[in-house]
Specification:
36% of the residues lie in helices and 16% in strands. The chain has 493 residues and is an alpha/beta fold. The chain has two domains: 148 residues, Leucine Aminopeptidase, subunit E, domain 1 (3-Layer(aba) Sandwich); 321 residues, Aminopeptidase (3-Layer(aba) Sandwich), CATH 3.40.630.10. It has an eight-stranded mixed β-sheet, sandwiched between helices. A hairpin with a 5-residue loop joins strand 9 and strand 10. Helix 3 runs parallel beside helix 4. It is globular and about 80 Å long. The two termini are 37 Å apart. The structure holds ligand BES, magnesium ion and zinc ion. Ligand BES binds next to helix 11. Zinc ion binds next to strand 7.
């Protein structure tokens, strides 16, 4: 659950005031180079037995209480390093039970650093602990120091407003993480719909819902086929954000689509036990799309945004779809289901077809689609595939801004050969052991009309890395929400 981080912005912080005083280097060019120098000084500092052993500082070494060794974050880019460093300082203040934690960021180039520091602290203080019954195992009972940003001559109201917006973003990311971390018994398709309804109310979004009857009437046969094995029927949700006052006549329209398998057992092509454990996270794409819509709803944008969540549970049962079954999709194309564990693509094509019918300027889907993506890129990097250079570049740029790294894989049409079926138009898996992320994306692309600028994000790695990572506690990271919201923000004229 989320810890409330109390923070404020001050012009200055007199030396005599109490608090754990932390300095940050404000110039990103010297952020790391200066460190080497500081490390030497730090040795001296430690020898003076000041006993506050870590350093994160700028010019005035002597007034710093706390030193965060930055070289431990050297593998990260500077923004990610600031997030980690700020979190470390925060945790030290918690451990020492000192409040406030004073972050001195008063140099002219420091403006971006405040946001990154607060982001590291809010995302880093989150842990999913609601089922830990022993308070000793829970973080949330801990002492919560206040965080003070000292901004000197910088424009205080602007920084404060920036931080307020950032706080909303981070709280939303933590809500996304809650959704992903909730066990399958607590969050099936219906409960996910309830969450979407609440978000819509909170963030001023329009909402449209499909239950199993409406899905049947409108031939969303992928969702119905995948959902058949579960006692919890499938659902689809469409959320729309439109600015109240369009400043320019025509604003861009973006459709975001998310894979929402609330639990993926593999279906009758059952996964081995160990591979199933983390599959409550198979709705991370849908959660990220919901999060992106929430962020946009709260902060506003001169862009129309539609989010489509495809929600189902993939279970084996007497009524489950069987390998060899053939689904005729809404557009008439038939799919042979050679493996019921390749279910994400089956539900996504329904949502992508609905999205394409809106004729958006851009369409992006996010999905924990393939284990192959974790093999290809590891757990820290997501894949992007698509056929629109402009959209792919925009996504990569947005990811660079938010610290969510994505890397392009080729949508290599030659591999479509691997997806032939003897009985249907296409098979839902490739017949080769290799290139699984590409074949999955090619499958999707077969259902997205050529004229729609579309890209697919395979977030199977970083959405739920399976261990603690950077400033993230074990479990969900909310990957994709900031990235997609950033794409939208950057599209504003
Ligand atoms: N949800 C999984 C992909 C996944 C695996 C996400 C591990 C996160 C961690 C997906 O539905 C799946 O099972 N994909 C299969 C596809 C295969 C049957 C072609 C896979 O990756 O094994
Ligand atoms: Mg699967
Ligand atoms: Zn899945």
């Amino acid at each position: 659950m989320e810890k409330q981080i109390i923070w404020r912005v001050e012009k200055s912080w007199p030396q005599k005031e109490q608090g754990l005083r932390v300095f940050m280097i404000s110039d990103e060019r010297v952020f790391f180079t200066i460190y080497q120098e500081l490390e030497d000084k730090l040795k001296v500092y430690k020898e003076r037995k000041l006993d506050k052993s870590l350093l994160l500082t700028a010019s005035d070494l002597t007034s710093a209480d706390y030193f965060v060794p930055l070289n431990q974050f050297k593998h990260l880019n500077v923004w990610e390093a600031v997030k980690c460093a700020a979190l470390q300082a925060y945790k030290e203040a918690v451990a020492l039970k000192i409040s406030p934690l004073v972050l001195v960021l008063d140099a002219p180039e420091a403006s971006g650093f405040h946001k990154k520091a607060l982001e590291g602290i809010i995302l880093g203080a989150y842990a999913y602990e609601q089922f830990k019954s022993d308070p000793k195992d829970r973080d949330k009972e801990d002492f919560c120091p206040e965080v003070v940003f000292v901004v000197g001559g910088l424009d205080l109201p602007i920084i404060e407003a920036d931080l307020r917006r950032l706080e909303k973003v981070c709280k939303t990311v933590n809500r996304v993480r809650d959704l992903v971390n909730h066990p399958p018994a607590f969050l099936g398709p219906e409960e996910f719909v309830d969450e979407a309804v609440k978000s819509a109310g909170r963030c001023g979004l329009q909402i449209d819902l499909w239950d199993e009857n409406r899905l049947l009437k409108e031939s969303y046969n992928g969702l119905l086929a995948v959902g058949r094995g579960s006692s919890k029927p499938p659902r689809m949700v469409m959320l729309t954000y439109e600015p109240e006052t369009a400043e320019s006549g025509v604003i861009p329209h973006v459709v975001l689509v998310g894979k929402g398998i609330t639990f993926d057992s593999g279906g009758l092509s059952l996964k081995p036990g160990a591979s199933m454990v983390d599959m409550k996270s198979d709705m991370a794409g849908a959660a990220a799309v919901l999060g992106a819509l929430e962020i946009i709803g709260q902060l506003g944008a001169q862009v129309k945004v539609t989010g489509i969540l495809a929600l189902a549970e993939n279970m084996p049962s007497g009524d489950a779809q069987a390998p060899g079954d053939i689904i005729v999709m809404k557009n008439g194309k038939s799919v042979e289901v050679k493996n019921t564990d390749a279910e994400g693509r089956l539900i996504l094509v329904d949502a992508l077809q609905l999205g394409a019918s809106l004729k958006p300027d851009y369409m992006v889907d996010a999905a924990t689609l393939t284990g192959a993506c974790r093999v290809a890129l590891g757990i820290q990097v997501a894949a992007v595939l698509g056929r629109d250079r402009d959209l792919i570049s925009r996504l990569i740029k947005s990811g660079e801004e938010s610290g969510e790294i994505i890397w392009e894989l080729p949508l290599e049409k030659a591999y479509l050969e691997d997806m032939k079926s003897d009985f249907a138009d296409i098979s839902n898996i490739g017949n080769s052991a290799y290139g699984g992320t590409i074949t999955a994306s090619l499958f999707l692309s077969e259902f997205v009309p050529e004229e729609i600028p579309w890209a697919h994000l395979d977030i199977a790695g970083p959405a739920y890395p399976g261990k603690k990572w950077k400033y993230f506690a074990p479990g969900a990271t909310g990957f994709g929400a900031r990235l997609m919201a950033g794409l939208v923000k950057n599209l504003q004229k």
